[in-house]
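Researcher: We plan to redesign the surface later, but first we want a full-length starting point. Tokens attached.
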């Protein structure tokens, strides 16, 4: 679809091991396919969110969730947003592109995303923790109150921030009557020059 609307920027923070993050990421990707939206993929961490809690709500007593988050932070830092998106997609899809019900093999995902295999070793070290924490803290700073993953921030074409979608809130039903200035990156309004009479469905 060709749009005459100026592009928005959506900065999307996610933990690569979080199923809700993957569902929401697919929804945002679908929006970007239909609307002038540029996605800036970044990493946050459930392990960091849960630090200091007496009971880990994820039940991750062995600290396994650090591994994919560290790997993702290394990918974003060294290879950029698009490669991070490819890595995350490979984690949650089969080779034929069908969605998986659970996260796949980390090494296989690196290979499918055309990333160096040695990155998997970074998941077991603290080398990239400063990078991961900086990215995570940037997401948390946008939200007042309880925080989860994913977090999203949208920016209008002129750079002004219209607002933040709070973590864990799934945008399952965009408002059909909203306008370009409504504060979302996904406008379905007939008044928008880049809009059409249909809108993308929520990923299943």
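Model: Full-length starting sequence:
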């Amino acid at each position: 679809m060709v749009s005459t609307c100026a592009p928005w920027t959506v900065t999307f923070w996610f933990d690569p091991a979080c199923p809700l993050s993957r569902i929401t990421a697919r929804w945002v990707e679908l929006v970007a396919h239909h609307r002038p939206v540029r996605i800036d993929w970044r990493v946050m961490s459930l392990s960091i969110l849960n630090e200091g809690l007496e009971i880990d709500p994820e039940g991750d007593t062995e600290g396994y969730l650090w591994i994919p988050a560290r790997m993702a932070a290394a990918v974003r830092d060294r290879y950029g947003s698009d490669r991070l998106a490819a890595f995350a997609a490979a984690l949650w899809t089969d080779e034929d592109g069908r969605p998986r019900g659970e996260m796949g093999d980390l090494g296989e995902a690196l290979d499918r995303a055309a990333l160096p295999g040695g990155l998997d070793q970074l998941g077991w070290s603290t080398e990239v923790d400063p990078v991961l924490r900086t990215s995570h803290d940037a997401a948390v700073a946008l939200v007042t109150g309880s925080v989860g993953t994913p977090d999203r921030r949208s920016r209008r074409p002129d750079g002004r921030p219209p607002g933040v979608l709070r973590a864990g809130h799934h945008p399952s039903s965009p408002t059909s009557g909203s306008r370009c200035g409504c504060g979302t990156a996904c406008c379905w309004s007939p008044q928008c020059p880049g809009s059409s009479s249909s809108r993308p469905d929520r990923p299943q």
